[in-house]
Fold this sequence. Notes:
The structure holds two protein chains of two kinds. By secondary structure, chain A is mostly helical. Chain A has helices at 13-20, 24-58, 63-78, 81-104, 133-166, 169-177, 182-212, 224-232, 247-277, 283-291; strands at 113-114, 117-118. Helices cover 71% and strands 1% of the residues of chain A. A two-stranded antiparallel sheet of chain A has the order 1-2. The longest helix of chain A is centred in the N-terminal third of the chain and has 35 residues, at 24-58. By secondary structure, chain B is of the alpha/beta class. Chain B folds into two domains: 22-107 and 193-231, D-Maltodextrin-Binding Protein, domain 2, CATH 3.40.190.10; 109-190, D-Maltodextrin-Binding Protein, domain 2 (3-Layer(aba) Sandwich), CATH 3.40.190.10. In chain B, 38% of the residues lie in helices and 26% in strands. The longest helix of chain B is centred in the last third of the chain and has 16 residues, at 204-219. Chains A and B meet through α2, α4 and β2 of A and α1, α6 and α7 of B. Chain B: Residues 22-234 form the Solute-binding protein family 3/N-terminal domain.
Amino acid sequence: MFTSCTDPSTLDGLNWLACYLTTGKHVLFYKSFFVVLTLLAVTAPLALGVGFLGAVVSRSKHAPLRWIGTLYTSMVRGVPDIVFFLFVPLAMDQGFEWVRHKTLCRDWSEPIRQGNDFLVCSAAKLPLGSAPQSVHEIYGFALAVLAFAVVFGAFAANVLAGAMKAVPRAQMETAEAYGMSPRQSFWRIMVPQMWIYALPGLSNLWMVLIKATPLLFLLGVEDIVYWARELGGAKTSHFTYPHPDWRLWYFLGLLVFYLGFTKLSEIVLARITTRLSRGQATMAGEQMRKDT
Amino acid sequence: MKKLLLSATVLAFTAGASFADTVRMGTEGAYPPYNFIDDDGEVAGFEREVGDKLCEIAGLTCEWVTNEWDTIIPNLLSGNYDTIIAGMSITDERDEVIDFTQDYYPPTASAYAALTDGVDLMGGVIAAQTSTIQAGHVATTGATLVEFATLDDTIAAVQNGEVDAVFADKDALAPFVAEQGFTFLGDDVPLGDGIGMGLRESDAELKTKFNAAIDAMKADGSLNALLIKYFGEETATY
């Protein structure tokens, strides 16, 4: 990056450090912070959507729908996350490729499973074998987002279903008395009011989600933990910047990042709580009414 | 509506399909000097140079990807990349699952390294990387085997005093002996049948191409030149 960095072996002290911290590898490390933040930004709304759907389905009047909802939430909540993170992307990837194989390569006669190999025609590969590495990375990231959404959606579904039940019955009764249809009373009365009941559970989930991002590494996405390990490991003279085992410092950096991010989340969540409590038939809402 | 959606997805998936196939080279990126991520964040090392040269000879377009050592074979089988070029020794066990090209790195020794002398190699606690021939070997001695995901972790385990010694490819340990206070202990142990590229068993065509390319590199001496460049004058050559 700097012109003085062309021959690191002649540098010492801060100059060396400045060059060291701006190597291509470190830039990739810094970029991986954005990968993690992007994952959070994309996954959270998606998981919330999945959760909302799950909650609605598990409260459905139709028994089969209700069973699907219950099966989904109890299955995902009962299986260890790590198993799901390994299973879901692999299963989805092979599933997509299988479907594409069946539609794109109808004249393919060989079996898809040959011994240990999972073989589809090259047109069905996802992403295509000829695609640049960035496409492979985005695809891997998308699979990771889906896996996170499936897992956290199940927890969110449970939280939201509980929140829907917590909305005071009197509110719904009033809506019915005003002649609202079930659909209208659901969207106009229940949904706007349920968030304050869901918030403690959802904020917990958000915190767990922040801490779960290092699982990305399991899925082959090069996240901050991967790079911290890779950069921190002892480096011999095969590298331009040899150094002993520095993982402690890199992990300390991650610790500060995660704690800082948690603190920030807490501040934001506290504000949302205040906001949502306004005018609610809860103790916090009642307190606010008295104060003003 | 459903049909429309489905056909739209299929269309989206097929759009931009061109079949100038790239060979995706899978490596670990954590086993210097065989393969590692250099300071620019690129795959580098002996295998990077050999692989690039092989692709050039065979007239293939190659792209490098990294994968954890632990899952490197399953990901080859499910088609995430097309070759494994990651210092993988040819063994009968692996040969049952995947195919190997001929060796591009001759059979060499594995060795024990530690920070102090007088470690009981046959009865002590020895670190090795998971699913390597070295881990397999330690398990057959009387020593207690502790497995780690990467070479880095095995080195760190010795430095922390968690284990008594590390057992790995001698050439991979050599830099740590030269620069970080490790010493070799005991006799060298010859293991494996050399290092080859791993391929899917169904990929016979690719295997032929790479075998021919390795032949060519062995014949013109360029492989020996690379071996000496990365492993020193002492190393075994063809």
